[in-house]
Amino acid sequence: MIQRIMTAEEFAEQKYDLPDGGRWSELIAGEPVILEQPSDSHGNVIRNLSRFLAQWIEQKQVGYACFDLGIIVQRAPDTVINPAVSYFVTGSRWAETDKVVTDTKPALVFEVASTIDRRRNMPDRITHYRNMGIPVAIVIDPMELKIAVHTGADEVDVLDREEVLTSQNAWVDDSIDQPLLDGLSISVSDIFEQPEWWQWRSRPE
């Protein structure tokens, strides 16, 4: 029996019935795929990144961020992938926050290449983002402690842990008149460190 491929909308409706409540699930060419559970280093990246972004957004009041939101990057057959962070600057503020999947284009995405399957599929993910017209894709690599910033068709800027991730004039989206995340500056090493508050929380009783 041939299983019928799913649409993005069907995937959204049934996602929570998948293993682990669909937490690590994506839809690739109409078929649900379960990704490896992220590592502790992945968690550290997300905890740090969420803090830095929250501080910047609170200060600048420009756009908003969603975590693990499914982005519909292809139709017929449908593909839905979940970047670690999607940053939006268009539409009503927080409009995408409670969605499972969306076809709204983020202005910028962050990926975390923390497991074998995520690393192996990263070139395809970047291609999907480019094809969708997302101007900036930032790939954080906790294994090699590096960050790759993808802008344009073939432009990649790789930063090591001694450098600083800083917004650039090339980070542009037609919907706003300033660079994306203008003024954001984060030491690469700080993105990979385990936060002190998390170390305290992780201590045994």
Layout: helices, strands, pairs:
Blueprint: H1 8-14, E1 25-28, E2 31-34, H2 40-60, E3 64-67, E4 70-74, E5 79-81, E6 85-88, E7 101-102, E8 108-112, H3 116-120, H4 122-132, E9 136-141, E10 146-151, E11 155-160, E12 164-166, E13 185-187, H5 188-192, H6 196-202
Parallel strand pairs: 4-7, 8-9
Antiparallel strand pairs: 1-2, 3-6, 4-5, 6-8, 9-10, 10-11, 12-13
How does this model look, in words?
The protein has 205 residues and is of the alpha+beta class. The chain has a single domain (39-202), classed as tt1808, chain A, CATH 3.90.1570.10. Helices cover 27% and strands 27% of the residues. It contains six helices and 13 strands. The chain has helices spanning 8-14, 40-60, 116-120, 122-132, 188-192, 196-202; strands at residues 25-28, 31-34, 64-67, 70-74, 79-81, 85-88, 101-102, 108-112, 136-141, 146-151, 155-160, 164-166, 185-187. The protein has a six-stranded mixed beta sheet with strand order 3-6-8-9-10-11, sandwiched between helices. A three-stranded mixed beta sheet has the order 5-4-7, with helices on both faces. A two-stranded antiparallel sheet has the order 1-2. A hairpin with a 3-residue loop joins strand 10 (146-151) and strand 11 (155-160). The termini are far apart. The mean pLDDT is 93.
Oligomeric state of the chains present here: single chain
Query: What is the SS-derived class?
Result: alpha+beta
Mean pLDDT: 93
The CATH H-level homologous superfamily:
tt1808, chain A
Query: What is the overall silhouette?
Result: globular
Content of β-strand: 25-35%
Widest sheet, order of strands: 3-6-8-9-10-11
